[in-house]
Amino acid sequence: MSAEVVTRFAPSPTGYLHIGGARTALFNWLYARGRGGKFLLRIEDTDRARSTPAATEAILKGLDWLGLDHDGEVVSQFDRADRHAEVAQALLAKGAAYKCFATPEDIEAFRDAARAAGKSTLFQSPWRDADPATHPDAPYVIRLKTPTEGARVIRDQVQGDVTIRNDQLDDMVLLRSDGTPVYMLAVVVDDHDMGVTHVIRGDDHLNNAARQMGIYTAMGWDIPVWAHIPLIHGPDGKKLSKRHGALGVEEYQAMGYPAAGMRNYLARLGWSHGDDEFFTDTQAQEWFDLDGIGKSPARFDFKKLENLCGQHIAVGDDAALLHEIEAYLTASSQSPLTEAQRDGLLRGMYCLKERAKTFPELLEKAYFILADTPIQPDEKAARNLDSVSRGILAALTPRLQNASWSREQLEEATARFAEENGTKFGKLAGPLRAALAGRAVTPSVFDMMLVLGREESLSRLAQAAASDED
């Protein structure tokens, strides 16, 4: 086996990138990246009736948003059908497979008879050991000759050793009567040809591993390291489904979750490194190992997701956050930012990203930057702009005008004004918030003044103070 670790993600393009598929991709990506290996992408598009270019595009976009870059070109399984058929013919030539002429009616009759006799309904083909001279000129499938005795052991890095008796396995069809390869053959041939060393996938594929091992063994190929990970359940312990909320990765982008928080959360969904909850991509790649994956299904928890996303927003690079916010606005079909809004967000990011769990929350805090002027206060803020408050703003504005525009000077000028007027800063904060943002809940008034700048801040205060003249 190659010393280089090679993993793969192999989705079927029949819909969006499911959250479970995204986690499988992430585990494969982390395992390869943490070991200087390769992470490959294969689209299993052999089901032509259900595979669509739009679904392939959705999967690629989902992986791109999550930041899971792959090595080399995307492999199409359908394009490799000739190679899959070639392996089936090679197995036939070496006696590890055989031509089976049994019709669907023959198979059904066999099963009916087995059921009536109380025997196993696992189909036993009468053509398994037939003399080729007796073969009719009729359509046939190619079946793998499964040993009838003994057992095979799946040495699984998550589930432990799983033993399956050979007499519980049928002679699997490799090539259909129309010459097309079946999925089970295609997967093995592709994994072998792509040099895949570690197959990390959902535990719903565990039984497939036993059948696929038969092809590896018959071809004399190295069997990869298996790691079958438990599925994701909803908070109620049932298999994750639409009733639990969003399933497609693109829905999470459109809801405004940052990709770094999503990666962190998905990594913790069924895998752990001690008690660590929050970690960076670099740490995840260093720490991720198969023995940290649990055997029980993980439960999806929106509160934990939001908590981690908030932590990632708080430590995020300002320019990178702005870039991701713009992608979020596109994904959620909202208007793009103007140049002035972009500049304002960048200037204000330091006071916006604290305690925002999602981009919508961050943008709500940024309303004072994004709102059109003159500012129209909402109902709650308007209550802080009665005639007394407007009088206070009118008297305070000249004091601020004369302050050098630094936080220290602004705080000092406001505190002195409050003291001289026998009031507390808290009494000034409401009218200031209403004037600067038109909202009752905002970042610090001093942060807003610094982000807006002297001219815009004073203009808004003057407009609010004069608003009773309407």
TrEMBL record:
Motif 'HIGH' region, chain ranges: 11-21
Binding site for ATP: K242
Xref: InterPro entries: aa-tRNA-synth_I_cd-bd (IPR045462), aa-tRNA-synth_I_codon-bd_sub2 (IPR020751), aa-tRNA-synth_I_CS (IPR001412), aa_tRNA-synth_I_cd-bd_sf (IPR008925), Glu-tRNA-ligase_bac/mito (IPR004527), Glu/Gln-tRNA-synth (IPR000924), Glu/Gln-tRNA-synth_Ib_cat-dom (IPR020058), GluQ/Sye (IPR049940)
Reactions catalysed: tRNA(Glu) + L-glutamate + ATP = L-glutamyl-tRNA(Glu) + AMP + diphosphate
Aminoacyl-tRNA synthetase class I anticodon-binding domain residues: 338-464
Keywords: Aminoacyl-tRNA synthetase, ATP-binding, Cytoplasm, Ligase, Nucleotide-binding, Protein biosynthesis
Main location: cytoplasm
UniProt superkingdom: Bacteria
Motif ('KMSKS' region): 239-243
Subcellular localization(s) per the UniProt record: Cytoplasm
Subunit structure: Monomer.
Family: Belongs to the class-I aminoacyl-tRNA synthetase family. Glutamate--tRNA ligase type 1 subfamily.
Function: Catalyzes the attachment of glutamate to tRNA(Glu) in a two-step reaction: glutamate is first activated by ATP to form Glu-AMP and then transferred to the acceptor end of tRNA(Glu).
Name under which the protein is recorded: Glutamate--tRNA ligase
Organism: Mesobacterium hydrothermale
